[in-house]
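To: structure subgroup
Subject: Chain for Friday's discussion

All,

I'm putting the inputs and outputs inline so they're searchable in the archive.
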Amino acid sequence: MNKIIRIGGVPEHFNLPWQLAMEMGLFEKEGIDLQWEFYPAGTGAMVKALKEGNLDMAVLLTEGAISAIINGLEAKLVQQYVSSPLIWGIHSGPDSGINNIGGCENRKYAISRFGSGSHLMAMIDAEVRGKKINQEDFVLIENMAGALKSLTENASQAFFWEKYTTKPLVDSGQLRRIGDFVTPWSCFQIAASNKALAEQNNAVIKICEIIGFTASQFMKAPNAIDILIEKFGMNEEDAHNWFYSTEWQTDNQISSKMIENVMFSLKKIGAIGEPIAPNFLVAKQVLLT
């Protein structure tokens, strides 16, 4: 009987290697029944699913994964997935009258949920600018549809989300991009629940090996841009720009310094208490460098 592993990820370009690996049957060949589920609401929703036992693994934003584990999520990082930073688009509604992030002071920020990337990154951006966002200034919108409604109705005025995912909405005029923010660390990690690590660690290791191989092949594929255009409807320029700014990790190494940098920023915004040793955040098969 195949080992069942339930894994979640956002419906974005970054997770294309998972789709390609499943289409090629690479997990099945290793006796793994990988059950993938898209989570449009993002990292916060997947953290909740891991806590409730509805997922065994998830592809999480680095800052969301680390803050969740420190704050009690019974899981570990098992592989760095995307080593390049995330380019966040900062968005506002068509009628907000706001043209840059400086105009968002004392305004409302749309977030998918507390602990999500849209929440943490808004706070980190504000801290970098010497500002502070109050708890009451966050508006829960759950997903992109909720964000679009909130921003269009001017119930909120700022929203952080991955730049290329929202670009069609910007191009159509439904949203306006008023700035960018580049994450100062690698953007995605693969996390596995402690239960999955205890009961199916060999399958977890094999899954990481397969996705590392698939990502490596995709980065070298001569038709990679064509695949992006076909599967995500991207125009050629956007596909090129996104592809050549994205690098997937293909081994089991994670930088201790990177983890420490994330914890330093999370502590400054009050998302975590005291930082912990990086080795307490990673599974035993991870090589800290």
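Points worth raising on Friday:
The CA atoms of residues 126 and 132 lie 6 Å apart.
The first helix runs from residue 16 to 23.

D.
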